[in-house]
């Protein structure tokens, strides 16, 4: 009877151990340390005492460790240089400055009684196709020819230059006067038709009559030639349709001689425009002033000497 109870207890213990083992195996990620439990069992009999020790060894459960290791995210470094968008620079637009109007050429003209050399340029206003006044420049050509002359009059002479096409002749007329053995320019008259090749924006069939009335230009003694290299400007005026147009003529490298003798072959002695001219009145006036001063000083000296002499006699 006692032996059957002992056998039943042993069976229960073994069953509990198996159930515990299965339970531990079914648990994931759980590690059970190895344990050894000893269950002593003592059986006493009247005849002898026997000790039976039952050792239950719990097996190490199979541990399934599922470890998912995610590698750290490493930023991707591109070794290629960054792409830069380059906007091409705009091509600079070069604006060419307007070319200066060419300087006039020097021409020489011989009309027997008048010999002329100069470079001349006209500066004037004219009417364009829109009815507005426009500024214009024009050079007197050096290849102009002597069309006419006036040499018979003793006090007035002139020379007439022409150029341009036969259908539209341009002209310049210069008058010289002689007074008190001195020659002087009295006037300049210019007839200028504005041709399309020279003034494409000008109103059609426009002709200018430019006039300069002199105030003593080119003044020189008789039998001498006037000479001046610097630029001289002389006003030009004209009245067309009650509109007064104003401009000027610029002359340079001028040498001119009027009232020449019939057998003259070239220019006479030069009278330069920049030469100093001193009037005879000035030295005469200075001489008179000095003489009067000397006379006053002399009279004062004589009066003072006479007074001192008179005092000397009175002291005796």
TrEMBL record:
Gene3D superfamilies assigned: 2.40.160.110
Gene Ontology BP term (one): establishment of protein localization to organelle
InterPro entries: Lamp2-like_luminal (IPR048528), Lamp2-like_TM (IPR048524), Lysosome-assoc_membr_glycop (IPR002000)
Name of protein: Lysosome-associated membrane glycoprotein 5
Annotated disulfide bonds: 113-151
Organism field: Drosophila suzukii
Gene: Lamp1
Subcellular location: Cell projection, Dendrite; Cell projection, Growth cone membrane; Cytoplasmic vesicle, Secretory vesicle, Synaptic vesicle membrane; Early endosome membrane
Record field: transmembrane: 281-304
Stretches of the chain forming a coiled coil according to its record: none
UniProt key word Repeat: no
UniProt keyword annotations, A-Z: Cell projection, Cytoplasmic vesicle, Disulfide bond, Endosome, Glycoprotein, Membrane, Signal, Synapse, Transmembrane, Transmembrane helix
PANTHER family to which the protein is assigned, alphabetical: LYSOSOME-ASSOCIATED MEMBRANE GLYCOPROTEIN (PTHR11506), LYSOSOME-ASSOCIATED MEMBRANE GLYCOPROTEIN 5 (PTHR11506:SF35)
Annotated membrane topology: Single-pass type I membrane protein
UniProt cross-references to Pfam families, sorted A to Z: Lamp2-like_luminal, Lamp2_2nd
Composition skew (Low complexity), residue ranges: 40-95
Extent of the signal sequence: 1-21
Keyword DNA repair: no
Domain annotation Lysosome-associated membrane glycoprotein 2-like luminal: ranges: 108-260
Residue ranges of the region described as Disordered: 31-103
Domain of life: Eukaryota
Similarity comment: Belongs to the LAMP family.
Described function: Plays a role in short-term synaptic plasticity in a subset of GABAergic neurons in the brain.
Origin organism lineage: Eukaryota, Metazoa, Ecdysozoa, Arthropoda, Hexapoda
GO cellular component: late endosome membrane; lysosomal membrane; plasma membrane
């Amino acid at each position: 009877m006692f032996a059957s109870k002992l056998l039943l207890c042993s069976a229960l213990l073994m069953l509990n151990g198996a159930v515990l083992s299965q339970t531990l195996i079914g648990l994931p990620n759980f590690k059970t340390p190895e344990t050894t439990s000893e269950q002593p069992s003592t059986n006493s009999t009247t005849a002898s005492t026997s000790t039976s020790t039952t050792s239950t060894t719990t097996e190490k459960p199979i541990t399934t460790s599922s470890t998912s290791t995610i590698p750290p995210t490493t930023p991707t470094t591109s070794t290629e240089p960054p792409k830069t968008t380059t906007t091409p620079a705009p091509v600079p637009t070069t604006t060419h400055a307007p070319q200066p109007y060419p300087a006039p050429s020097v021409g020489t003209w011989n009309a027997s009684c008048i010999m002329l050399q100069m470079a001349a340029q006209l500066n004037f206003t004219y009417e364009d196709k829109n009815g507005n006044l426009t500024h214009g420049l024009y050079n007197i050509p050096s290849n102009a020819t002597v069309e006419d002359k006036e040499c018979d009059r003793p006090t007035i002479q002139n020379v007439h230059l022409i150029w341009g096409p036969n259908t539209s002749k341009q002209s310049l007329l210069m008058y010289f006067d002689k007074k008190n053995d001195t020659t002087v320019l009295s006037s300049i008259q210019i007839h200028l038709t504005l041709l399309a090749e020279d003034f494409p924006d000008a109103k059609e069939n426009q002709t200018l009559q430019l006039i300069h009335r002199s105030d003593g230009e080119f003044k020189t003694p008789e039998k001498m030639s006037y000479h001046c290299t610097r630029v001289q400007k002389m006003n030009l005026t004209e009245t067309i349709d009650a509109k007064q147009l104003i401009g000027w003529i610029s002359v340079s490298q001028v040498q001119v001689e009027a009232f020449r003798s019939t057998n003259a072959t070239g220019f006479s002695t030069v009278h330069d425009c920049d030469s100093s001219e001193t009037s005879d009145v000035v030295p005469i006036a200075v001489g008179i002033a000095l003489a009067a001063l000397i006379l006053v000083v002399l009279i004062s000296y004589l009066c003072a000497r006479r007074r001192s002499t008179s005092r000397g006699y009175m002291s005796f």
